[in-house]
Amino acid sequence: MKKRIVESFQTFVNAVFAGIFIGIAGTVYLAVPNPVAGAVLFGFGLMTILCFGFKLFTGAIGYLVNQKRKDFCPYLWTLFLIWCGNFAGTYAVGTAVRHSRTFSAIGARVTALCAAKSADGAVSLLILSFFCGILMYVAVESFRRQDVLEGIFRFFMVFLCVSIFILSGFEHCIADMFYFSAADAWCGRTLALTLLMTLGNALGGWLVPLGDKIRR
Q: How far is CA 201 from CA 38, 58, 96, 157, in A?
């Protein structure tokens, strides 16, 4: 029992750190006027998470389909802890940035961004988060597959996938946690939309590994 508590705490802490780095990545994305440069720099967040072994929900959800029956429920609990830790980390960064000088440079942009997300329809957000989930799984799995992609190509795939989802306007539930926190836009609707985008990211994250199982 004590071991499980310690492991759960470690998972949560690693998830908080992942949320912090997504928040930092979101900040630089908002601060850079050039959208392409901002999209590339956002990749810093995921690359740091992968290199340090932090826990990101959108990077972990795709591996749920590969869990054995006995590990399925424990992994669900792990995913819940990761989601909560990511929320805590992004909220902390978003709140801190909102009370800093940096907010004067990004405030208008993040407020407009959150307004657009809040005004969007459920189907649209589900579709956009679904495609983001696919790209996040591909990015993480590409980084892990050292036998397929070596050296700089593994890093390239991470930045490429992140840049594509940013420039395409796809929805990343953890990044959106940061945006809503920075804009102080949390309410019942934004929480519901975050849960909807979490579902979309999950469905997208499951697509490729399920496809691998079918074709094998």
A: 22, 7, 26, 19
Question: Which residue numbers in the chain have pLDDT < 70?
Answer: 146-150, 216
Instruction: Give kind and range of the element (H or E) at residue 64.
Output: none
List the end-to-end C-alpha distance of the chain, in Å, as a whole number: 38
Give, as one character, the DSSP assignment of residue 11. Answer: H
* CA distance linking residue 182 with residue 92, whole number of Å: 9
Model-level pTM? 0.95
Q: How many whole angstroms separate alpha carbon 118 and alpha carbon 180?
A: 10
Quickly list DSSP for 65-98: GG--HHHHHHHHHHHHHHHHHHHHHHHHHHHHHH
- d(Cα 38, Cα 11) in Å, to the nearest integer? 29
Report residue 82 as tokens: 């990761």
Helix (H, G, I), strand (E, B) or coil at 55: coil
Query: Across the chain, what does the average pLDDT equal?
Result: 95
Q: Which pLDDT score, from 0 to 100, does residue 149 have?
A: 54
Give residue 2's pLDDT. Answer: 80
Euclidean distance between CA atoms 26 and 176, whole angstroms? 9
